[in-house]
Design brief:
single chain; 82% helix; mainly alpha; globular; Growth Hormone, Chain: A; disordered N terminus
């Protein structure tokens, strides 16, 4: 109990054996995933030096998650969240192993990256919503939910902080292809840890077909004003702000003149990840839902302001500090939105609703990366980033009052 008091919500969440097993597998797979992501970004930029190709590969990797999200949620609710996640992790891990073999043997056609990225995106489209929706079932008390979500989200955001260091070690002592093998092995490990959970899952009734389940989920979201507001607000952030991470190789070279080797790029990844890690750690220790609406509102304002400023400076050190702020702001938005939705959603609808929010978090950055990459290819990176951030600020002005009005009820567990 003492440690739980010292660590606040973190200690309470880790008091659950199920959560400890889940987190161990999750953080391992997250690190493998981000090491592979850094490797993909560097290889694509090295082969093409094209912002458009960076956007295309990101689109192929993430868009399936958005398209498949409603189906993934219905499948998880009907057949079991854990079973769905395990099968998807095994498929994704095998894809990475095959990708490793291809890169090891000198794959130089970037079009194959689209194929592998697409398969990975399909697997993640079923895996991520299922693992996210599982969180309320593996903690000891509903009071620990916001901390568990913050830990879970921060674990994902820890990837940009730690993965660049691991990537540099992989490149130095092994080969860049090993990044793909590492990711595959970590996915297998997470599947094994999920299989060890002591979990009694509630499954939706089988009265209708799978597409009937999907429609029920969509109708439910549309009928819950608070959830709908949060979903729309987070969608704008993932479309207009989150794609900056996929374009960091271009940031390093075009904005800051650091394109000669991976060092500048990995530093930007590291500082952005450090901001996410610090923000998520604070929210996990804070350990309560109250005030999450306000945190989310100011996190949204901050991310857009930071991106405008980062696009207008040519100083690498200043840019790294600003991207630290970008990572901090994005984690606040991510944790705030998930905490509000998970607190308010009906348990029988959880898989379908969380699949939609996870699909937004995975798929819309892919659309944004593709659009921003295309605009940057045509008009330049700076106008693309500044334009997207200003559009995001306009969305913030339109939505902030509604979010502040709906948030208190959701914080208390009402949609």
């Amino acid at each position: 109990m003492a440690s739980g008091n010292r660590l606040g919500g973190i200690g309470r969440a880790f008091a659950s054996r199920n959560f400890r097993l889940y987190w161990t597998g999750n953080i391992t797979s997250v690190l493998g995933f981000w090491v592979q992501l850094v490797a993909i970004g560097w290889l694509v930029w090295s082969l093409t030096e094209s912002e458009l190709w960076l956007g295309l590969v990101a689109f192929a990797a993430r868009m399936p998650g958005a398209v498949l999200a409603p189906l993934a949620g219905a499948v998880g609710d009907r057949f079991g969240l854990r079973r769905t996640a395990v099968i998807a992790l095994l498929i994704g891990g095998t894809n990475s192993v095959v990708w490793f073999i291809a890169v090891l043997h000198g794959l130089e056609d970037v079009r194959w990256f689209l194929v592998f990225a697409f398969i990975q995106g399909v697997a993640l489209g079923f895996d991520l919503p299922s693992r996210q929706a599982m969180v309320p079932s593996i903690i000891n008390s509903r009071e620990d939910l916001s901390s568990a979500i913050a830990i879970n989200t921060t674990s994902f955001q820890a990837g940009p902080f730690i993965a660049p260091i691991l990537f540099a070690l992989v490149v130095r002592f092994l080969d860049i292809s090993a990044a793909f093998l590492l990711n595959g092995l970590t996915f297998y490990f997470f599947a094994f840890m999920l299989s060890r959970l002591d979990l009694q899952e509630r499954r939706a009734g089988r009265g209708g077909g799978i597409f009937s389940d999907i429609l029920d989920g969509a109708r439910y979201i549309g009928s819950q004003r608070g959830i709908l507001v949060v979903v729309l607000v987070m969608a704008s952030a993932h479309l207009l702000a989150r794609p900056y991470i996929d374009l960091l190789p271009a940031f390093a070279e075009i904005f800051y003149g650091k394109g000669d080797d991976p060092t500048g790029y990995t530093i930007l990844q590291w500082t952005s990840g450090a901001g996410s890690l610090l923000g998520g750690f604070y929210l996990a220790i804070r350990g309560r839902n109250s005030g999450m609406g306000r945190y989310m509102v100011w996190g949204l304002f901050s991310i857009y302001g930071v991106l405008v400023t980062s696009a207008l400076t040519a100083n690498f050190a200043a840019g790294a500090v600003l991207l630290f702020g970008a990572g901090l702001s994005m984690i606040v938005v991510a944790v705030g939105s998930q905490s509000l939705v998970q607190s308010a959603v009906d348990v029988q609808m959880r898989g379908r609703v969380i699949s939609l929010t996870t699909g937004i978090a995975v798929g819309l950055p892919a659309v944004g990366s593709l659009l921003l990459g295309a605009v940057a290819e045509w008009a330049g990176l700076q106008p693309a980033i500044v334009g997207a951030a200003l559009a995001g600020l306009a969305c913030w002005l339109l939505a902030r009052r509604a979010l502040l009005r709906e948030a208190p009820g959701m914080e208390a567990g009402r949609a």
